[in-house]
Amino acid sequence: MATPALVLAFVISAVVHHTSATAPSLVTFIFGDSLTEVGNNNYLRYSLARSDFPFYGIDYSNGKPTGRFSNGRTIGDIISEKLGIPSPPPYLSLNPTDDAILKGVNYASGGAGILNDTGLYFIQRLSFDDQIDYFENTTKVIKAKVGEQAANKLLNDAIYFIGMGSNDYVNNFLQPFLPDGQQYTHDEFLALLHLKLAEQFTRLYVLGARKMIFHGLGPLGCIPSQRAKSTTNQCLHQVNEWVLEFNSKVKKLVNVLNYRLKNVQLTFADTYQDVLDLINDPSKYGFKVSDTSCCRVDTAVGGLCLSYAHVCTNRKEYVFWDAFHPSDAANAILADRFFAKLFPVAAGAAQNGSAPKH
To answer: What are the two backbone dihedrals, phi and then psi, of residue 89, each rounded to the nearest 5 degrees?
Structure first.
């Protein structure tokens, strides 16, 4: 039986020591939705969940849209920076046999969910199952490149960041015109998510994943798209209660799988309170606005920052970029919190001016 603390010890060791001339770089595989996507949906011709147009990317390194659902970086980008490694490229941007897969891949896709019917109205997106399918292809290519033994070591030693579930609520259960919200009570829907997620964790384990970090959901009831449903623009309490139930259920699942699966090291990263604090007390973090987005979006037509929208000039003062996604500045704060919780030794080194370099 493994404990979640073991994965933290491994990563801390890897972060501190991976700069050695003979030590291999830390390899990360990222699974998720639009909060961590870096451009996979750009390659899905008919996808309606995309951000490869202005004003997305306005504060990214080249000022151009990349397929990230932000004005700048994702939390995953910032975590990679802190780990001293490049942000893994989108899977669909790579040649299937590209050597880049040996250094890590990002499979995240806007609109993706734990359930395969989540985000159906986006026409094309990579569900969590789809992403695992692509990861399975990746494992086969890695084995063909370096051999079974070396591939198994690479896969076992890699870190797997997983952020899923937001769309299962926002773009499924909470939509009155979709069947899941009509045919299931929340308890029934949560049981469905729990069962599916257990299957997906186990499948990743069978494919070689051992060190997995699942990023819990934030207070979805407080994102602009949900506030817009309130006549007073307040957070939706019921939605946040459901999110807390989801997080609690996944925490228990993580504990069960850590007990049942040999050598697995699953960690639940809970940032719910950090996000809520940022929203409730933005001035503490240098922000001025947290109840609406920098980009003036129309939640009636999706809530994304379309090319004709008005964009605020003081983007660092807004917690939210569009109706769903944090701004680059907010992602930086949240990534700091996430990193400090999961990698305390490395975070301490960074604060002391000795952050690992790649």
So the answer is: -75, 160
